[in-house]
């Protein structure tokens, strides 16, 4: 389809303008947040807003080294997100391979079970978790939070990986098996290299979801383990919001996901569509 | 991952049996984890919903049977939250699909620059909902200072307390959710539209089918599976939406943006009435399962 090539110039101009507006609307928080993070509190509150100002690094200095430093929170996010992502992939990849490629009794049931666990509303799970972690003394601990992130990331990762495994031609397995390569060796040396891209996409998604998680973090975390998503609230109080610091903190908190999103954008789009077209993932 | 000796083919071991055993070994760890992290808590939640557990009044605790659920009948806040959940889910999903599809159709007409828009569309999706909520609350919707107020004031429409006014607050949180997730619908539908066969359109054009006819009779049927999938996935997200509303309004003012999710949370962790909170979560679970079951059946029927 190339309808635009024969379109009138005015029509094309309108399309371009529409695209420009769209771009501005979607990129707005990141751009505006970035600008705000370099402003002084006085410039932030100026009306009408100032576009030309002397940028300052004070806000970043404050949220990194100051009394409201979010470095410990970034560390919490890094530990919990990385650990839960690693565990998720370790469990999800083999399971997805079995669901996608192997014959065994209860295949449909096991696939449906994984899908159904994804439907559970997080707010429902948080109550039992809270009570159990409280009893076992694991509230506000890395292991508690990491384990609980598996609830939403594992089903998601399994289903996304299933759709990638299904794309590998069956002949590859057959050839390897006929060579008496063994199931495990076939999976490891023949199939896994074929889904490397899928593993990368799934890992990115799982990490993003873990990094952005808020509900579990705010209820089950605390003073020791407090991911950045929760720490953002430190900059907001009833009496006074520290706009510029909030913006600087948010920029630091969001830098990893924005960078990952930009670098992996092609793969993310593919992951979204694979999940959507085949009925896998949720986010 | 070590390879237990059992998976190396042995004489007399049929291939099928070998495959079954291998499948079990690969699945067992994941299923076990899911059993522990999702199914066991679910049963515990169901048990809690049948009990009176009030951390504020621990002396009143005990088995309540269906008492918590009976209590909902006369709880106006529950009915309000149920209604808001329906409004929130319904309106955000419809808006996302409508806007997403229109934008995808428009952007498809642009010969160059689609890549830039795709990158921009990724941004809202990857941002944490809680940060999105905070951004909107502070930089976009705050009165006297936010971007929206800037526009309404310069247009002479005056200043509004977008998140402080009960009616505007609901519209605002719906707008926030729609802003964040429409790019998802857009990306998926754009990718689907791009795969449609061009020769069908050429044929239709030769038959002098109007643009609307082409859309109605060719495009729509072809993208319907993708739309259904977007609807299902977005419904799940809307039903479990929490962080953005929590950050923007906290469910308020009053309970004007308190969807079921937030009501269950507030009841359990602000008012510490865990038993009642658990029963509210059970209702939410029931709705989620019913909706997904219905949607999947609808999808298969097509």
From TrEMBL, chain A:
CDD domains: TM_PBP2. The lineage of its organism: Bacteria, Pseudomonadati, Pseudomonadota, Betaproteobacteria, Burkholderiales. It comes from Caenimonas aquaedulcis. The chain crosses the membrane at residues 12-35, 74-100, 112-132, 144-165, 186-208, 243-264. It comes from the Bacteria. Its main location: membrane. Belongs to the binding-protein-dependent transport system permease family. GO terms for biological process: transmembrane transport. It holds the Pfam family BPD_transp_1. It is found in: Cell membrane. Gene3D superfamilies: MetI-like (1.10.3720.10). GO terms for cellular component: plasma membrane. It is a multi-pass membrane protein. Residues 74-264 form the ABC transmembrane type-1 domain. InterPro entries: BP-dep_ABC_trans_perm (IPR050901), MetI-like (IPR000515), MetI-like_sf (IPR035906). Keywords: Cell membrane, Membrane, Transmembrane, Transmembrane helix, Transport. This is Carbohydrate ABC transporter permease.
From TrEMBL, chain B:
It is found in: Cell membrane. CDD domains: TM_PBP2. The chain crosses the membrane at residues 22-47, 82-108, 115-136, 222-248, 274-296. It is a multi-pass membrane protein. Pfam families: BPD_transp_1. InterPro entries: MetI-like, MetI-like_sf. The keyword Hydrolase does not apply. Residues 82-295 form the ABC transmembrane type-1 domain. One of its GO terms (biological process) is transmembrane transport. Keywords: Cell membrane, Membrane, Transmembrane, Transmembrane helix, Transport. GO terms for cellular component: plasma membrane. PANTHER family: BLR7065 PROTEIN, SPERMIDINE_PUTRESCINE TRANSPORT SYSTEM PERMEASE PROTEIN. Belongs to the binding-protein-dependent transport system permease family. This is Sugar ABC transporter permease.
């Amino acid at each position: 389809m190339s309808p635009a090539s024969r379109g009138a110039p005015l029509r094309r101009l309108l399309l371009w303008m529409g695209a420009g507006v769209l771009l501005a609307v979607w990129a707005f928080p990141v751009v505006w947040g970035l600008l705000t993070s370099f402003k002084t509190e006085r410039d932030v509150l100026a009306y009408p807003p100032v576009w030309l100002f002397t940028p300052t690094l004070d806000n970043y200095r404050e949220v990194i080294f100051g009394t409201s430093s979010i470095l410990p929170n970034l560390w919490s996010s890094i530990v919990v997100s990385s650990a839960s992502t690693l565990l998720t992939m370790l469990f999800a990849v083999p399971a997805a391979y079995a669901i996608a490629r192997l014959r065994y009794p209860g295949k449909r049931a096991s696939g449906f079970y994984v899908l159904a666990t994804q439907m559970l509303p997080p707010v429902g799970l948080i109550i039992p978790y809270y009570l159990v972690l409280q009893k076992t003394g694991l509230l506000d601990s890395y292991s508690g939070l990491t384990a609980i992130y598996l609830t939403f990331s594992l089903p998601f990762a399994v289903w996304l990986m299933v759709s990638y495994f299904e794309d590998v031609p069956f002949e590859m397995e057959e050839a390897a098996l006929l060579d008496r390569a063994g199931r495990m060796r076939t999976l490891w040396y023949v199939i896994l290299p074929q889904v490397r891209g899928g593993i990368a996409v799934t890992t990115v998604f799982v990490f993003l979801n873990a990094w952005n998680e808020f509900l579990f973090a705010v209820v089950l975390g605390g003073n020791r383990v407090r991911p950045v998503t929760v720490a953002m609230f430190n900059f907001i109080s009833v009496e006074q919001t520290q706009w510029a610091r909030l913006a600087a903190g948010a920029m630091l908190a969001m830098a990893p996901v924005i960078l990952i999103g930009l670098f992996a954008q092609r793969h993310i789009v593919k992951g979204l569509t694979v999940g959507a077209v085949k009925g896998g993932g949720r986010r | 991952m070590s390879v237990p000796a059992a998976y190396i083919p042995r004489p007399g071991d049929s291939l099928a049996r070998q495959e079954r055993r291998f499948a079990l070994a690969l699945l067992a760890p994941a299923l076990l984890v899911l059993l522990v992290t999702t199914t066991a808590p679910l049963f515990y939640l169901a048990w809690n919903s049948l009990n009176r557990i009030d951390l504020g009044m621990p002396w009143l605790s005990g088995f309540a049977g269906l008492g918590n659920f009976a209590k909902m009948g006369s709880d106006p806040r529950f009915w309000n939250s149920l209604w808001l959940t329906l409004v929130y889910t319904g309106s955000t999903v419809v808006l996302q699909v409508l806007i997403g599809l229109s934008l995808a159709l428009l952007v498809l007409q642009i010969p160059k620059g689609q890549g830039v828009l795709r990158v921009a569309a990724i941004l809202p999706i990857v941002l944490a909902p809680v940060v999105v909520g905070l951004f909107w609350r502070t930089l976009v919707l705050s009165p006297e200072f936010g971007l929206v107020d800037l526009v309404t004031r310069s247009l002479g429409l005056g200043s509004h307390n977008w998140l402080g006014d009960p009616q505007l607050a609901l519209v605002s949180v719906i707008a926030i959710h729609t802003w964040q997730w429409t790019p998802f619908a857009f990306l998926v539908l754009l990718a689907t539209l791009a795969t449609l066969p061009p020769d069908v359109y050429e044929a239709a054009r030769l038959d002098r089918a109007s643009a609307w006819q082409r859309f109605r009779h060719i495009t729509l049927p072809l993208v319907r599976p993708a739309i259904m999938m977007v609807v299902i996935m977005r419904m799940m997200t809307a039903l479990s939406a929490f962080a953005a509303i929590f950050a923007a309004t906290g469910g308020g003012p009053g309970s004007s943006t308190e969807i079921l999710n937030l009501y269950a949370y507030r009841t359990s962790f602000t008012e510490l009435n865990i038993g009642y909170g658990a029963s509210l979560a059970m209702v939410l679970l029931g709705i989620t399962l019913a909706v997904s079951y219905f949607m999947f059946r609808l999808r298969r029927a097509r």
